[in-house]
Amino acid sequence: MTQKEFLNIVMPFKDKVFRLAKRLLISTEEAEDATQEVLMKLWNNKEKIEDYKNVEAFSMTMTKNFCFDKLKSKQSQNLKIVHSNYEDNNTSLQKQVELNDSVHWVSRIIEDLPDQQRMVIQLRDIEEYDLDEIAQMLDMNNTAVRANLSRARKTIREKLTNTHSYGIK
Amino acid sequence: MVLNNIEKLIEKYENGETSLKEEQQLKNYFSQEIVAPHLEIYKPMFAYFLVNQQEQFTKDVPLSTKKVFNYKWISVAAVAVLMLGIYLKSTVNDDLGTIQDPELAFNEVSKSLEMISKSFNKGTSTLGYLEAYDKGASTLEYLNEIEKGTSIIFKKNQ
Question: Does residue A143 or residue B132 have the better pLDDT?
Fold first, then answer.
């Protein structure tokens, strides 16, 4: 497999990998590193790539596992990934997000969700995957995905309502 | 009518029962400027989803073609070295020259044989020390006599 063929396979979903990594790791730099790592792993195993039924789903699962490993190792070192995106390449995007304060709240609320729910929200509402695909990626069953999704959506809505009506977090 | 539909969809949405198509409808609805006041809450949520869809991974990935060292080449190199060795040996060591005159040849041979026998003798002369060892061993025979003595004693004890 040449580099070009590989890129043709990977290009369509590399942003999704990055966004999922960012959702889990929060820091942009960490997410970039994680994405790089995942893509490198895919590249190194490029001979096997044709055997995978769904490379994209496989990569997402890989990303999830990689990020969890990373979080675990950080925890055991008694370090926390600090959310410090000092310099952001996509300032326009950041600005766009912060333009609307409520939108910013949504990102804060999602950050506070449990990992499972965060991932499900990311994969469904942002990446728009099928429920079955998500179940496959996260190694859960369909009902569990649905339950997590529903819980996450309700939490977001409740917290947003709270912020709106009382101005509390 | 439309609003009614949206409300229903929202309810389904919160239960996680909407299809992707229905969710797209919701996203379209909430990306409008004006939404029904009681649904205002959902607007930032969908706006956030839309914005986040656009985030991109900009870093380069160094796709180095990792060269796997091929051990086959070691054997090739070994064979090459071996062939070179054989070739050099066969060319260099082959011809030492021959002496044509028989008398001269005889002299040369006897000279070299003499040299061999001389150094051989030198080697054997140092072996003379072995005789001293034999002498030492013969004195040890007294030990046998002692043993005889002790065996008699033990027999008596029995």
Answer: A143
Pick the CATH number of A1-84 from 1.20.1070.10, 1.20.1260.10, 1.10.10.10, 1.10.1740.10: 1.10.1740.10
Average pLDDT, chain B: 82
Q: Do A105 and B44 touch (CB under 8 A)?
A: yes
pLDDT at A6: 83
pTM of the model: 0.62
What is the structure's pLDDT at B54?
A: 85
Q: Is B41 on the interface with A (CB under 8 A)?
A: yes
Across the interface, whether the CB atoms of A126 and B53 are under 8 A apart is answered: yes
Q: Smallest Cβ distance to B47: which of A15, A103, A127?
A: A103
Using pLDDT thresholds of 50, 70 and 90, give the confidence band for residue B79.
Answer: very high
Name the class of domain A88-169: mainly alpha
Which of A119, A153, A155, A159 is the best substitution to test chain B (most B C-beta atoms within 10 A)? A153
Chain B's closest residue to A144, CA to CA, is B16
Q: In terms of CA atoms, which chain A residue is nearest residue B59?
A: A32
Q: What is the DSSP string of chain A?
A: --HHHHHHHHHHHHHHHHHHHHHHH--HHHHHHHHHHHHHHHHHTTTTGGG-S-HHHHHHHHHHHHHHHHHHHHHHTT--------S-S-HHHHHHHHHSHHHHHHHHHHHHS-HHHHHHHIIIIIT---HHHHHHHHT--HHHHHHHHHHHHHHHHHHHHHHHHH---
Question: What's the pLDDT tens digit per position in A77-128?
Answer: 655 556 655 555 555 555 554 455 777 788 888 888 898 899 999 999 888 8
pLDDT value at B47 more than 50: yes
Which residue ranges make up each domain of chain B?
2-53, 102-129
